[in-house]
Specification:
- This protein is an alpha+beta fold.
- Helix content is about 40%, strand content about 25%.
- The protein is built from twelve helices and ten strands.
- The termini are far apart.
Length: about 300
């Protein structure tokens, strides 16, 4: 009985790799000749692009590109970059057999022999259309939010870096504080505080509180570009990314000077120890007319 010759370990490993690549369905994995002719085709390539192996072997890979990309020479450029730089990576539209498009993530690597001679290319393509749609939806949502924030004029809404540098600026911030976006972006937000508050370290204390407690809310005097002051209601919230890292702060400021003035006037008017307008006038004007009108109280110059 003759024994079956043993296959070299390298041949067995190569066969395993071929079977593995052929069975992958989430990625289109195939090889090209140095000229760009398709020389192998896996199940993922058939699933993404719609061509069977018999239909596509021997065809140029440029057929997967759009007419505009072919006219611009992008297929040949991809091969040249991979050959000269050792790798080509890109995202873009690719065309299926039925003419529909999908957004592809593409990696192209040169295959060389032990002498460095170019034998062809290995090409891996993934359909990431769903991810791109999610990114576009997120971008559209962020743009709508940006336009909304920019249009708000009653509130100063802006962002700070983790160090406290202003990174954006809305119309409300310009109206309330007096600075244009180009004047204030990149500067530290402590410029809006009074000198005593800066000397006491209140700006950085506010950031530290927001970072530690998840929110900072306070009222106090703030300074406009022209040096005038206003009474501000301030909220600072930390912005944390998906990894839990602090990437900055959202800051909302409202000018509540009128409200504070009204509250102070009301407090003075309702204070039992506060002299009435009539009585105080009577002390300086000995007359039966107080405050510009007949007085019902007994006024005396004594």
């Amino acid at each position: 009985m003759s024994e079956k010759p043993l296959r070299p370990a390298s041949a067995i490993e190569a066969e395993r790799l071929r079977l593995f690549v052929s069975s992958v369905t989430d990625y289109a994995i195939y090889t090209l000749s140095p000229e760009g002719i398709v020389t192998s085709w896996n199940a993922g390539a058939q699933r993404f692009k719609g061509y069977t192996e018999a239909e596509i072997l021997g065809e140029h890979f440029s057929r997967f590109y759009s007419d505009d990309d072919r006219a611009a020479g992008r297929p040949a450029m991809a091969l040249a970059v991979a050959r000269d730089a050792g790798r080509f990576e890109d995202e873009g539209w690719r065309i299926r057999k039925d003419g529909t498009r999908f957004w592809a993530s593409v990696v192209l690597d040169p295959i060389r022999d032990h002498n460095g001679e170019l034998l062809g290319y290995a090409k891996i393509t993934r359909d990431i259309t769903a991810r791109r749609k999610e990114q576009e939806a997120l971008h559209a949502s962020e743009e709508r939010f940006r336009l909304l924030v920019q249009g708000v004029t009653d509130y100063a809404i802006y962002m700070l870096s983790p160090e406290g540098l202003v990174s954006n600026w809305n119309e409300g911030a310009r109206r309330i504080k007096g600075y244009g976006s180009d004047e204030v972006t990149g500067t530290h937000f402590e410029r809006f505080y009074t000198e005593p508050d800066r000397a006491a370290g209140l700006p950085m204390q506010a950031l530290a509180t927001a970072r530690r407690d998840g929110r900072f809310e306070r009222e106090g005097w703030r300074v406009r570009k022209d040096g005038s002051q206003f009474w501000a209601h301030v909220v600072i919230d930390p912005i944390i990314d998906s990894m839990g890292e602090l990437i900055g702060y959202a800051k909302i400021t409202r000018d509540v000077t009128e409200r504070r003035t009204a509250e102070e006037e009301l407090a003075r008017a309702s204070s039992p120890s506060a002299p009435s307008a009539c009585a105080s006038t009577a002390l300086s004007i000995p007359s039966k007319r107080c405050c510009g009108a007949p007085c019902t109280a007994t006024c005396s110059s004594n």
